[in-house]
From TrEMBL:
SUPFAM superfamilies: Homeodomain-like, Tetracyclin repressor-like, C-terminal domain. InterPro entries: Homeodomain-like_sf (IPR009057), HTH-type_TetR-like_transc_reg (IPR050109), HTH_TetR (IPR001647), MT1864/Rv1816-like_C (IPR025996), Tet_transcr_reg_TetR-rel_C_sf (IPR036271). One of its GO terms (molecular function) is DNA-binding transcription factor activity. It comes from Streptomyces noursei (Streptomyces albulus). This is TetR family transcriptional regulator.
Length: 206
């Protein structure tokens, strides 16, 4: 627990949002240490944030909701980076917008390694399909789904299973980034751009 958390003053009335943000930051710090939802203790979160454990339930129904809300911050940052890149691409070319999204994904993973590791190295407790549908990773899947739909509307055909295509894009760029990061080769981002190009050529045909 940090020294600042130990002496944290009580929040005045009307500052519930501030407490929520402090709980999210505390959860993020602890997840980086323990690496899994199961190993995360709500008492430890409360201690890190400098509040009583019951205070957590004023903002989050359970530990899973707290973890997902913490991960959502990083997923939103990544989704925004992808959306901003797509907005700067050729508006008349949906493939160019998709290309920009994929490249932005790779750049974000490289430039924000701590946030990126949090998304993919946090082992999460399994939930039912109804609750899983609300996972914050859906931001990425929906983004790629909409991008592929725009490509189809422009006359492109998506090879293979259309339902799995967003996950194919996701797993492909994630896997390539991980290999790029851990291998002792020269860190040339143009290789990632080349991979994105190959991926689009394999997935789309006109």
């Amino acid at each position: 627990m940090s020294e600042s958390a130990a002496v944290r003053p009580r929040n005045p009335r009307g500052q519930g949002e501030r407490l929520r943000e402090e709980l999210l930051r505390a959860t993020e710090r602890l997840l980086e240490e323990v690496g899994s939802e199961d190993a995360l203790s709500l008492r430890a979160v409360a201690r890190e944030a400098g509040v009583a454990a019951p205070s957590i339930y004023r903002h989050f129904a359970d530990k899973t909701e707290l973890v997902w809300a913490t991960l959502e911050i990083s997923y939103e940052r990544l989704a925004h980076a992808m959306a901003d890149a797509a907005a700067e691409a050729d508006d008349a070319d949906p493939v160019d917008r998709l290309r920009a999204q994929l490249r932005a994904y790779c750049r974000y993973a490289i430039e924000h390694p701590a946030n990126y590791r949090l998304l993919y190295e946090t082992r999460q407790t399994p939930v039912g399909p109804e609750r899983l549908a609300g996972h914050p990773a859906g931001l990425l899947v929906r983004s790629w789904h909409h991008a592929l739909t725009a490509c189809e509307e422009a006359g492109w055909r998506v090879r293979g299973s259309r339902a799995e295509a967003p996950y194919l894009l996701w797993s492909a760029v994630h896997g390539r980034v991980m290999i790029w990061q851990v291998m002792p080769s020269r860190k040339d981002t143009s290789r990632l751009d080349g991979f994105v190009e190959e991926l689009l050529q394999l997935l789309l045909e006109h």
